[in-house]
Amino acid sequence: MTMSTTEKESIVLGSGKLYYMEFTGEIPTNATIEVEANRLGYISGGATLEYKPTYYKCKDDLGLVSKTKITEEEATLKAGILTFNGKKLTVLCNTGRVTEADGIRTVKIGGTDNDDGKKYVLHFVHDDPDGKIRVTIVGVNEAGFSLAFQKDKETVIDAEFACQAMDSEGTLIIYQEEITTSEA
Fold first, then answer.
1. Cβ within 8 Å of residue 36, ≥6 positions away
2. What are 124-172's pLDDT values in tens digits?
3. DSSP 3-state assignment of 54?
């Protein structure tokens, strides 16, 4: 593939915003998910998308013929959640249950029988003068979390969402970038 002279490449700098919604079988539109009520929290340390394929390779003893086939894929979206509340912990933990009474929010975490089985659409938006970049996955936080309360440092929850297939094609990641009319 050769790049036409109208295709623009950009240097991507900076972080973005992370949104979520419960996955109901369909990916919501950008306009639907990119609202303040769906913001998981402001993030610290950016976001990292990782894609790792696994290949099976075979070849004959003389090295004359060979074949390579992809056998599995793994993808994760990692982000440090800087702002959160107890309700948001249930997005990071499938066994979390929230109750509110008398001005107190209580979150109970644990007990495998309490697994709610929910999957989430995670939607990261990098807003750049060259155009927005959006990364969308479906998954759950499989890394657990830790809350470190330190006298001289903010508490950041490092979430690692393992991507799961979001459609019948096995799509793990949707990557969108805005392009100018001349590029289209």
1. none
2. 999 988 889 999 999 999 988 888 899 999 999 999 999 999 999 999 9
3. strand
Q: Please report, for residues 3, 72, 83, 103, 168, the alpha-carbon distance to residue 37 in angstroms, rounded to integers and kept in the order given.
A: 40, 35, 14, 21, 29
* Residue 109 structure tokens: 């975490």
DSSP state letters, 100-125: EETTEEEEE---GGG-----EEEEEE
The residues spanned by each domain of the chain are: 17-177
Q: Answer whether 0.90 is exceeded by the pTM.
A: no
Comparing 49-53, 69-73, 95-99, 143-147, the range with the smallest average pLDDT is 143-147
Q: How far is 25 from 28, CA to CA, in rounded Å?
A: 9
